[in-house]
């Protein structure tokens, strides 16, 4: 099959092109369209259409494809052979039409601002830049910009300028008549992420979770009554230009009748919407992924008390405690893959009104993994850090002593995690509370702080 394709390409380049009949297919010919959307500006489009083709070679103009199609990935399935294909990047607009007419004559109409009388001329387009147009009328050169009174008249639309994104294919059909065709291709301009709404109970020890799929369409085309699927996972790709600015996009939210079906595909998770939906161009749409109730959560406070361990710090530092919410992604409350996205936490006040209390991003999280999210700074829990001693021991060894005072303005006692990070080979030689090695570079102390009170942590560290 590959050898036949190479032979056809050689003929296409070497032989003169035979004029073929044109057959145009638009979105009205669609029998079905389905999308598999990936996390990072990529989607697989499968566009099924019924098209009437003549016997032999013809030019099939497959309109209403994505404006950001990757034409090298396009594959047409059906009982025909594809000899060549072209994707014209320029879409019809006043600017592109002028640019195609550089060096050619156009009609010019100028309206008198007082009398409304129209003057008609013929000119040659010399330049069609972003800041204006330059053209020749007889023996003079004139320019026109947005404020100029000229209107332009063209005799035709150039053949490689389309009003809608179009993939043009030269095809060979052994039999004429209606053909069932499917065009599959990869495109940019489509992406999705997970968005989570977590509503805490008044005590803050459980929350209800609503997970959404937020899908963005900037592909330049509408997908009406499309079957949607979403791949959760990190698919390796060759780097491409960054995602375009999404300001001004419309937002719609739709509640699915049931959670999306999930299955494993290769090393990823595939979610399928159990119904069709319309995804308009320049639209951001939300679809319900799943929901969970009464998920247990614990609240932690954490102070980063890392100091300067290779010199003297004469300043007392004021520190704030991070507020961290931790929960288990396990049954019976959860226990399913969590696609990467943003988790936003809300809680009701004394009047029962929902208040936003913080957010953070999660990566793709498999079943059984714990989740820990820092959602803000605690107002009532602060700390001060000061260096109490510093000396050189021997060679590159340094020893410093530190005091961390944790303050609690709450009406109940709290436990605060105090961490300090060190580089090199380190050892805690003295301490007022026992520490844990959180990792190779971090010491962690769990400090109990009384209500409306404070607790003091002293430690000495030797680093070499």
Poorly predicted tracts of residues: 1-18, 242-249
**What's the overall average pLDDT, rounded?**
87
Rounded Rg: 33 Å
What gap, in angstroms, lies between the N and C termini?
66 Å
Strand order of the largest sheet: 28-31-26-25-22-21-27-30-29
Which short descriptors sum up this protein?
single chain; 464 residues; nine-stranded mixed beta sheet; seven-stranded mixed beta sheet; 31 strands; elongated
Describe what you observe in this structure.
The structure is a single chain. The chain is mostly beta strands and 464 residues long. It is built from 2 helices and 31 strands. Mean pLDDT is 87; it is low at 1-18 and 242-249. The chain is 4% helix and 59% strand. The protein is elongated and about 90 Å long. The protein has helices at 2-14, 94-100; strands spanning 21-25, 30-37, 43-53, 56-63, 75-77, 80-87, 105-111, 118-129, 132-137, 140-144, 150-153, 166-173, 177-187, 190-200, 206-217, 223-232, 250-254, 261-265, 268-279, 283-296, 298-304, 317-328, 341-348, 354-362, 370-392, 398-408, 414-421, 426-431, 436-439, 442-449, 453-463. It folds into 4 domains: 2-29 and 54-87 and 163-183, no CATH class; 94-153, SH3 type barrels; 190-296, no CATH class; 300-320 and 376-463, Immunoglobulin-like (Sandwich), CATH 2.60.40. The strands form 5 sheets. Strands 28-31-26-25-22-21-27-30-29 form a 9-stranded mixed beta sheet, with no helix packed on it. A 7-stranded mixed beta sheet has the order 5-13-3-2-16-19-18, with no helix packed on it. Strands 17-20-15-14-23-24 form a 6-stranded mixed beta sheet, with no helix packed on it.
């Amino acid at each position: 099959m590959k050898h036949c394709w190479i032979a056809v390409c050689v003929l296409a380049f070497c032989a003169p092109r035979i004029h073929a009949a044109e057959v145009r297919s638009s979105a009205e010919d669609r029998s079905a369209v389905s999308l598999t959307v990936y996390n990072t500006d990529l989607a697989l489009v499968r566009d099924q259409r019924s098209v009437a083709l003549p016997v032999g070679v013809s030019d099939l103009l497959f309109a209403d494809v994505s404006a950001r199609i990757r034409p090298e990935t396009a594959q047409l399935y059906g009982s025909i052979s594809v000899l060549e294909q072209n994707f014209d990047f320029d879409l019809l607009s006043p600017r592109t039409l002028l640019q195609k007419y550089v060096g050619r004559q156009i009609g010019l109409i100028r309206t008198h601002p007082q009398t409304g009388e129209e003057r008609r001329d013929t000119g040659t387009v010399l330049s069609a830049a972003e800041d204006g147009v330059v053209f020749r009328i007889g023996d003079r050169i004139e320019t026109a910009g947005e404020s100029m009174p000229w209107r332009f008249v063209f005799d035709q639309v150039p053949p490689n300028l389309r009003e809608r994104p179009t993939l043009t294919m030269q095809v060979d059909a052994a039999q004429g008549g209606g053909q069932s065709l499917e065009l599959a291709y990869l495109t940019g301009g489509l992406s999705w992420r997970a968005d989570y709404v977590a509503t805490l109970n008044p005590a803050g020890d459980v929350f209800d979770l609503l997970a959404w799929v937020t899908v963005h369409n900037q592909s330049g085309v509408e997908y009406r009554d499309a079957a949607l699927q979403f791949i959760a996972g990190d698919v390796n790709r060759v780097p491409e230009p960054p995602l375009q600015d999404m300001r001004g996009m419309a937002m719609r939210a739709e509640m699915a009748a049931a959670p999306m079906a999930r299955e494993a595909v290769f090393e990823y998770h595939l979610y399928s919407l159990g119904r069709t939906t319309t995804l308009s161009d320049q639209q951001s749409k939300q679809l319900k992924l799943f929901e969970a109730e009464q998920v247990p959560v614990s609240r932690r406070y954490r102070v980063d008390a890392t100091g300067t361990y290779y010199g003297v710090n004469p300043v007392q530092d004021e520190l704030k405690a991070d507020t961290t919410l931790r929960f288990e992604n396990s049954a019976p409350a959860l226990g399913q893959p969590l696609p990467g996205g943003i988790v936003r936490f809300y809680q009701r006040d004394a009047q029962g009104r929902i208040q936003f209390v913080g957010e953070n991003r999660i990566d793709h999280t498999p079943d059984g993994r714990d989740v820990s999210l820092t959602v803000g700074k605690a107002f009532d829990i602060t700390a001060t850090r000061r260096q109490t001693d510093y000396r050189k021991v021997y060679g590159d060894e340094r020893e410093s002593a530190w005091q961390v005072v944790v303050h609690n303005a709450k009406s109940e006692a709290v436990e605060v995690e105090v961490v300090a990070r060190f580089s090199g080979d380190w050892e805690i030689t003295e301490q007022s509370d026992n520490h844990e090695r959180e990792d190779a570079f971090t010491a962690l102390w769990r400090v109990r702080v009384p209500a409306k009170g404070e607790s003091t942590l002293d430690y000495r560290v030797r680093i070499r």
